[in-house]
Amino acid sequence: MLKPLLDKLNTMRVILASSSPQRKLILESASLKFEVHSSNFEENLRPEDYTFSEFVQETALGKVLDVYEQLKNDMKKPDLIIGVDTMVTLDGRMYGKPKTREEAIETITRLTTSGIPNVVYTGVVIKYKESIEKFTSVTTVYMGKLTKEEIIAYVDTGEPMGKAGGYGIQGIASSFVERIEGDFNNVIGLPLYQLTQKLKEIVNT
Fold first, then answer.
1. CA 54, CA 49: separation in Å to the nearest integer?
2. Number of domain units in the chain
3. What pLDDT, in 10s, does the model give residues 121-162?
4. Angle at 137 between CA 116 and CA 115, to 5 degrees
5. Around Cβ 198, how many Cβ atoms within 10 Å?
6. Half-sphere exposure for 153 (CA within 13 Å, toward CB)
């Protein structure tokens, strides 16, 4: 982030409501001073009740509100809380973090053999003082085809576990991502450019 914005933000107590090491690294790369507080929000929204964009925004909002409740009685209350949720979609279906090896194999098989790109939605919610701001970033990811043996070998590296859609574009998966349309950081889990633009709007109003 550029200095005028950082100068303002770094006088505040800024919270990242996420335990994701990837999101933490992206935000650290911007030289922002912030604390990490994990949310206990139970991610149990019904996908069929929302559009993809609404789903990730509402999940991110749940994380923000949960962390606010954890910290609201602190002597120094949070000035700004950032919550994020990422979901991979393919052909009208959402793919979250695979819970088992078998689910990871099934997900990667679908993503790399369907012949169509997957689309990554990241919902970001910012609580600044008493206001709530929301936005969604969307990136299209084109993957090359993998053999069954390659899929199993990839899953057995352990990389897919804990990642939306079962792949880490910043890791081994980069070797079978043909191209993307949109923000690379969004696929990792935090659309830094859009976040920066929104923070500029918020703190300068």
1. 9
2. 1
3. 999 999 998 899 999 999 999 999 999 999 999 999 999 998
4. 5
5. 18
6. 8
Tokens read off for 147 = 């053999």
Q: What is the pTM of this model?
A: 0.93
E strands present in the chain: 14-16, 35-36, 80-90, 93-95, 118-128, 131-143, 177-181
In contact, 126 and 132? CB cutoff 8 Å: yes
Among 194, 86, 181, 105, which Cα is nearest to 143's? 181
Which residues are catalytic, by number?
A: 85
Which CATH number characterizes residue 43's domain? Answer: 3.90.950.10
pLDDT in tens, 91-130: 999 998 999 999 999 999 999 999 999 999 999 999 998 8
Give the domain extent around 41.
3-203
